[in-house]
Amino acid sequence: MTAIRTEQYKAAAHQGIADKHLQKALSGFQHRIAPATAQRYLSHGEGPQIRQMGHAIRMHAVEHLDRLLAELADKIDARGGQVFFAEDADAAVAYALEVAWQNKVQRVVKGKSMVTEEIGLNRAMEDAGIEVVETDLGEYIIQLAGEHPSHIIAPAIHKTREDVGRLFKEKLGIPYTDDPPTLTWAARKALREKFLSADMGVSGCNLACAQSGHITTLSNEGNIRMSTTLPRVHIAFMGMERVVDKLRDHAVLFRLLSNAAAAQKMAGYISYIGGPRQSYQEDGPRAFHLVIIDNGRSRILADPEFREILCCIRCAACLNVCPVYGKIGGHAYGFTYTGPVGAVVTPLLVGLDRARHLFFGETLCGACKQACPVDIDLPRMLLALRRRWAEGRKTDGFAGSGSAIEHLAFAAWAEMVRRPSLYRSARQMAALSQVVLPHSEGCLTRLPFPFDGWTRGRDLAPLSRRGFVDRWQERVKKRKGGS
Amino acid sequence: MVPSIKISLFIQCLVDSVYPQVAEGMVRVFERLGLTLDCPAGQTCCGQPAFNSGYHSAARKAARHFIRTFEHADVIVCPSGSCTDMVRHHYPGLFEDDLQWQARARRVGRRTYEFSEYLVDVLGITDVGARYDGTVTYHDSCHLLRHLKVAQQPRRLIGHVAGARFVEMADADRCCGFGGTFSVKYPDISVGMVEDKVAAIVSSGADTVVGCDMSCLMNIQGLLTRRRIPVRTLHIAELLAAR
Amino acid sequence: MSINRRRFLDRVRNALHRKTTHGQAHIRYEDLAAAVAPDVSADVLGILAASAVEANIHMTRAADHADAGRAIAGIVRETEAEWAHQDAVISWDHPLLERLNVKCLVEATGTEFIVTHADHSGPLTTEDRGAFREQVMRSRIGITSADYCVAETATLVVRTRPGQPGAVNLVPSVHVAVILASQILPDFVSLYALLEKQQASDPDALAHRMTLITGPSKTGDIELVMVRGAHGPRALHLVVIDDLT
Asked: What is the pTM of this model?
């Protein structure tokens, strides 16, 4: 597994907020792409219900996963491909290293793949002495810089053109320039050599098709096609849920995915790959391996409240509208999956306790559900995670340790809320005692722990002397008395 | 068309304790329309704070108390989108294991409305005869907008306020960063978000920002006051009560 | 079946024993409308032309095969080499392309014109493949046809067949695709209805490899500035021979 840094959410968020360039980049990105995506969703002949159609397609596939994976594997087998079912990250990585060793692989070219990040593939290969070259331009930049991606689709969104100029000067030896086309073509040239000399290509899989027995890969750059056409071995990695039943499902999902990921009508390249090259083919890999990965997904599948998250097609539309992601950036999430989808799936993969900031550290505003091309109810699952953390020890499955103090506090609060006279007295006491707190121009300027977070950056209106309900009661009494 | 039924006021705990003038405004608007009002004395809190933090058992206790307090009402109107959403959409789920309470919860939920929603969608009124001198912009609260799907109703009401000039701010529908306990537990992020919201308000040229949820407005007002920015925050009930 | 596979799928099957009410779709999968028959009256050429502009594809309408051949020769003349030693042009061995007479036109300008081979006496050898790679790297333009073109998005549907390798529309700097207007389908839904029908009668209908190409290679990974020519061809020319009118 890749490194998990979810505990550092607050500190990393703080860094992200202080990074002026990141703020500008995220704001510009979100403001450009989110409205464009929303427009694209409305442009289909199916009408706005196309997102619910996408949901039906994905949920159907998730709920028939055993049959679909068997069909997919059988068909790829029949074409001479090799399918490996990997229970966890270690098994997947071990298989990949075995394939690399058997094929005397020294250099690997890679398309962008979140699941390979999740399992920590690059590091394992490098430790085994294999050169791994990321070929998606954003991932290539990140790799040269020794960083982690901050967005699923645009991994280098946090880098300025000047950053890239300096990086390429240092790592590629080209004269400094901050012109994006020039920098892009420098990478084009550098990577072309890698494609042509690599021994093995690694890709992910966007949405396999059980009916036809293919994996599919999408890109705009053409890097995945290059990585899976030129080297003599191709190994593809797939989260087990990334499959559809019928070809017609692609007609809906590829349009939605293109809309969502890059506000496009259609992605530049979609490749269907069903096996190694045939004897008549001039190009293509002589060996094709597909690694289907569980790594905790079957546990998610088994949980009725969280099964829905497996519908995700990893488009990043939720990242593009999330006001929290837009403020803190991807690194704060401390794991492969960022943004709203990360806030749900990461705790389910790494544990609710260590990832609790991800599902508590957002506002449940609901923009993500609105933006999701397959209408996944992310807010529902975020609330469900909060309950599992707070009260989960009673249930089986995913749970957190909760907080005994907070539990006690809310239990006391509940007792008070059920007893109106007690509630009113408590309110009255609070209203009287607030005078000891620092004030300025009628507002509270400093609250005691644990509420001091509010007043660090804001003032707070004080409790009023008499609550409205009390005032109303008095008014009613007066009127009764008067008549 | 003014109904002969009685409107039971569901005063949000925040409004009750901190912003009673908002409830006063709501009362004035309804009384001017000739409506009969009631304000159940036993009401306290709908339970949303506990629910959002994952404490369903505590939230259930609050919900039962709410249901008992309000279930005999004809109509329940609340000056908060998030509380209305709690009652309407989340109460039934709290009683999945108790069908009787679930049925009671559903009945109450069906009769619960947010204030602007009630005026426009139920009473069919967009002009309450209000008058306000100023440039007004509107902040869409998340629950009201995305769960209750209320967006054009407050705008239409504002549009009919004599003397008020309405300007739409950029990103009116972007979350202000309140999020309940989030505002206290993740203050950096919360303040970062409300800074963006305030910047949008200021850019709009408005001198007044109106909303339908005091939780959001309390958050926005908190930054305006701290930074001494001369923009007034008003709940829509206060605006509509103005003469 | 391997133990891995059995254990893996058992775990999935067991997980699915629990039914859920959460996250169910509002539409049943079974009720999703089967693809409607394509609207044959639609002006597919006109729609395609508009989509091509949006997708940054240079589209040329040719009245006939000769016209198409001349258009391609023109593209060859205008296209400079991007890399050193990119002197040639490579084309698929394809019946449609053969009729265009491009080979003569191009060779007349002094440019080498390579055609891939469809028939081989046996399976390809390492030498064959090495020679092909060398040819494709030497070519600044790759000329192919396609199986279909989807007007809605200007998407070319290309299946790998003998003599029709994918590298020809990938490795050279420029891709030229030639189709007949009668190959144009109106939209994605009709394309997939057709593919599913073919798949039903022939499990290998999609071949080992099928690629959908929509425009030239591009990226916006540096500050969202769109740049054409990331790793695939930096320009895509589409020549459509109008056999409809």
From this structure: 0.96
